[in-house]
Known about the structure:
heterodimer, A: mainly alpha, B: mainly alpha, 2 domains, disordered N terminus
Amino acid sequence: MSEQTKHAEHEHHIVGPGVYVAILLALLLGTGLTVWASFLELGPWNPIIALAIATAKATLVVLFFMHVKYSTKLTKLTVVAGIFTFLILVSMTLADYISRAWGSW
Amino acid sequence: MPDNSAIVYDAQESASAANNANGANSAHLEHPSYLRHHFNSAEQQADTSNFAMWLFLLTEVMFFGGLFTAYLIYRNWYYPAFVAGSHQLNVIWGTLNTVVLIASSFTMAMGVWCAETRRRRGLILCLSLTFILGLCFLGIKTIEYHEKWEKHHVPGVHYSLQSFVDPDSDAAARAAGDKPLPLDMARHTEIYFSLYFAMTGMHALHMIIGIGILGFMIYRARAGAYTSGHVTFVENFGLYWHFVDIVWIYLFALLYLISRHQ
């Protein structure tokens, strides 16, 4: 194509259909699992398990469908920074409510 | 790298001499037509677009994050109302919608692969499937919203507490074995439905925008726009679509599956 050291197309790793099919099956399995688990009586663990399964599914989507596993350190750092900022949003809001007037609604 | 950019910038000053065959150092290096001159390479351009798309998605995370935080607080404050509200949602429609979106994420990822491997017809097929699955999702959502409207569970003037103070009068509440709620807690079910419509409504709006862009992409894909090496648009749209899928994965778990065991 040109005499450049890098070829014009991306140097990035092209993720093949095999990986996508595997992730699809894992996501469908996770969906079945979370519906099944919601019908079990597990007390305070129900929402924790539901969120854990949802987070596992989201992680698979981010790493493989969104190619983050194969992307640059900058991309990985950006994703982590986003999750971190979201956790700040949730935890600081909760800290505010929990420390004042919790139950005074 | 710095030398490379110096060569490119030098060439800009002497654009007319750029076509000379001698002196590789002063020639305008060959590059794909889609490479803008403020980038050193197509790879850098693609990486930059990718980074920018992720920044946009992070703003979307914070946007939905606010709604999720509100949900978190109110669910903890008015848990029985949220249980009763959740039982009014149809788990079968919700699960089906989840499956539809996960499948659409798969077809979208396959579309990106087709673009990367220059499979024009494969790309058109994958984008079309994603489009159809997106419409299926919206169709199911319409059915659900209509049911909510019919049962007077849409917050506002016509909101009805009957399903919650008298669960035996409501098929869904009976099936879930709900007990009658005291009046003040029954009123809080309207907050659950406000959050339901706000969150799924905002999600549906993102779906509609995504489906619109998919339509545009199918049109451009037929002209071979994305299978000549410049896959950035398809890749970045893929990121958007997967993000919308992830939001739904959490919405499904939080809205539809509260305390189904009771």
